[in-house]
Amino acid sequence: MREIKILGIIVVIVGVLYWGVEPLAHATFHPEVAKADFEFKDLSHNVDVSKGNAERGKALVEANCVACHTLNDVGIAGGDMAVYFRDDKEATIFTPDLSTAGAIYDEKFLANLIIDPANTLHLAHKFPNGDFPMTPYVTDGDLNQEVADIVAYLKSIGSVSLKKQVLESQEFVAKKGNIENSTLSEGQKQNEIAKLEESLTNKATFLNACSRCHTMKYDGVSSRTTPESLGVYLGSAAPDLSTMIRSKGWHYLEYFINDPQKVSYKAIQEAIIKKEGSLPANDKKSEWQDDKDYSNLAKELGVMPVGLSMPRVGLTHEAQERVVAYLESIGDAKKAERESLGIYLMIFFGVLSVLAYLWKRRIWSEIH
């Protein structure tokens, strides 16, 4: 009877810790924010990309974009850097190559980025004087149609360019050669090559989306932009991401990458209460907003907390999953092994508990 009481006490303590303390700690360290929005519902320009013409888009890109951007995988050299000045300090900014943009970035995000870059990236607060390096697209023609054409062209070359970057990389060629020269069966070789291509596609997505600012020291990836230039340009240097998956976790990264400028519901509501004295009814929120999301009201009142340096990335859901998978493959390479070992440990302790119980019964039977 005593053992059952002790077991009951242990169960209660574990239950309180697991269902009470742990969620409270998680909510404190990671306050609730809006979930990741891969439809980018807050963006105001609705361009019908399905009506875009890739051929016209190519001509528009060559006429308007290559002064600052390259498209190396389709043979368009263009420009790849710009010099930015702030407070008499100079920053050398490497502009992104657009070869894979249509494959990794959402088409609605791309269209809005072309029309209104600073607001689409959620960086207007960093450039209050309107001096964001990328200028809005201006035309005497049909703006929506021309933007649709540009995005259609980027989409037409995006996936091909991403695949080309993977299959022509030195890492793929070398590792593929090692697999082909191994003693594996033909089926096993093909399976390993497919896994290699998948893994390097994840890496290529990261390189295109993140490596202009971030390093991945554990995999030998350097940032193209120096910390000093980032400090002038965006206000702070970008962290190395080698162990980010371990320090933040997959769930945090899912919504953070989608929009780093998101502020917790609690912080937004506290800012409104501080100005208004109470929390007014939020009857003007958009239909896609959560009931606890007062961000529209906070912006209207001029109390919306902002200030982070990282821009909104604009990745598709698939591309973001690839980036996180790459972070996990570098920062938590033993995850699968660790999780499988955990199952064996649970089985071990289960068997040990049964043996301990049987041993206890035998000892006490001899005493009585």
UniProtKB/TrEMBL annotation:
Keywords: Electron transport, Heme, Iron, Membrane, Metal-binding, Oxidoreductase, Transmembrane, Transmembrane helix, Transport. Residues 52-158, 197-331 form the Cytochrome c domain. It holds the Pfam family Cytochrom_C. The chain crosses the membrane at residues 341-359. It comes from the Bacteria. The keyword Transmembrane applies. Its EC number is 1.10.2.2. One of its GO terms (molecular function) is metal ion binding. InterPro entries: Cyt_c-like_dom, Cyt_c-like_dom_sf, Cytochrome_c550/c551-like, Ubol_Cyt_c_Rdtase_Cyt_c_su_prd. Gene3D superfamilies: Cytochrome c-like domain, Cytochrome c1, transmembrane anchor, C-terminal. PANTHER family: CYTOCHROME C-553-LIKE. This is Ubiquinol cytochrome c oxidoreductase. It comes from Helicobacter cinaedi CCUG 18818 = ATCC BAA-847. The lineage of its organism: Bacteria, Pseudomonadati, Campylobacterota, Epsilonproteobacteria, Campylobacterales.
